[in-house]
Amino acid sequence: MSALHTAYGVSRHLWSPDDSWLAVVRERDEQVVCFEAESGREVFEWDPPRFWRGVFIAAVSPEALLVVTRAREDVRVFVLAVPDGGVLAEVRLDVAPGDITVEVSADGATAVLLSGLTHDVKGRGYELTWLDTRSLTVVGRERIHPAQGDRPRRMVMHPDGLWATWVTPQQSMRFDEPRQVERFDRAGAMLSGPVFRGSGDLRALRWVDADRLLVAIEPTVLARPDAGWTRLLLTDPERGRVLIDGEQQARRVGLALVYSEVDVHPEDGRLLIAWTDRLADVGEPSPGTATVIGRGGEVLASWRTPTAHYGAYGAVWAGEGDAVIELVAASDDALSLLRREAFDEEPRVLRTDRLKRPVGASGWGASGRGMTASLTRSPKGQWLATTWSIGRYASDEQLSWVAAPG
User: Fold this and answer.
1) Short-list 125, 255, 245, 128, CA closest to 179
2) Which of 195, 313, 378, 389 would disulfide-bridge 394, Cβ 3.0–4.6 Å?
3) Residue 27 in contact with residue 399, Cβ under 8 Å?
4) How far apart are the first and last CA of the chain?
5) Structure confidence by residue, pLDDT tens digits, 21-37
């Protein structure tokens, strides 16, 4: 059985495109740390220049890592060499250093940065800056002036690397407020996608392939009977369609579900979505829920798996056929990986790992403490990564990874 490796106190992490290394941003000091995946050995640490809190990382290639930091007066972008950690390129961008979002194209060649207005402009608005990640030269910049309402909080880049995508932000507390998917290219062209109605902030936004965008929203209108759960929409922006709206599913099932992760089947594009119940008390056992969705938005299967804590559940494809790997809390301080060969079969336990206490963790050993955990696959499927935290007042998360069982 392969060894379990853990990085403690992680605020962000990512895998290299070839699964050979992973990089994390440490919560306590926002240092960038790179690990060799196979051995768990720390390859390098890199201390960014002094900044406003906020360091973003993205994989450019198996040999390079993009790092974006917010300085006092600007935003700074670096490309670091892997495995030695040397600076290959550096640039300062004259954009507002407040809240920023960074995304990189699937081939690693282009990065786009969403920021507030530049310093010499007054009024509402935000800016898209497009960069060539090899030279860090600016290849496009477009100022966007939205309608009344805050700017988008999450942005993703289309797999072709040509479009930055977001959902129009909430402008009022109306539960039937119209929202739409917007896309901007680096020449400033805009396309609008499917329109749906509902309030709430984005919890997740992800292109699952070239023509399907997953949108997860936390409703904010507490008076509604379905408030307090995650509304999941699968959309086709190119054709202006909503393929599936989880609002109807949740009402039919009668559960308060919280979206955790989504995994795309490597062979046929089916989606495997992991959920947990929200209505359980902290520290109480509760089943996790997995849902399989076809390419057209149809629900193909759904099942529930017991876990010792209501927030500790995950599910990913095993890589072939209908086989699924699930993550559950085996006890207060242990996680188990299960394998389910078919949707209607009982799973078997692959391994159970006892979690080691992180230094300074609060709430560990306290009565009624909570555990949260989620499961993802690395880009090539060689590794399973678990993001977890223990403690009612835990301020950061831990990241553990293990080789995917053959």
Assistant:
1) 245
2) 389
3) no
4) 11
5) 999 999 888 899 999 99
Give me the chain's average pLDDT, please. 84
Do 188 and 199 form a contact (C-beta atoms < 8 A)?
Answer: no
Q: What is the 3-state secondary structure (H, E, C) of the chain?
A: CCCCEEEEEEEEEEECCCCCEEEEEECCCCCEEEEECCCCCEEEEECCCCCEEEEEEEEEECCEEEEEEECCCCEEEEEEECCCCCEEEEEEECCCCCCCEEEECCCCCEEEEEEECCCCCCCCCEEEEEEECCCCEEEEEEEECCCCCCCCCCCEECCCCCEEEEECCCCCCCCCCEEEEEEEECCCCEEEEEEEECCCEEEEEEEEECCEEEEEEECCCCCCCCCCCCEEEEEECCCCEEEEEHHHHHHHHCCCEEEEEEEECCCCCCEEEEEEECCCCCCCCEEEEEEEECCCCCEEEEEEEEECCCEEEEEEECCCCCCEEEEEEEECCEEEEEEECCCCCCCEEEEEEECCCCCCCCCCCCCCCCEEEEEEECCCCCEEEEEEEECCCCCCEEEEEEECCC
Q: How far apart are CA 17 and CA 21, in angstroms?
A: 9
What is the distance between the alpha carbons of residues 327 and 313, in angstroms, rounded to a whole number?
5
- Does the pLDDT of residue 375 top 60, yes or no? yes
Q: Mean pLDDT, to the nearest integer, of 341-364?
A: 84
Q: Is the pLDDT of residue 222 over 70?
A: no
400 in Cβ contact with 388 (< 8 Å): yes
**Residue (of 348, 342, 292) closest to 322 by Cα position:** 342
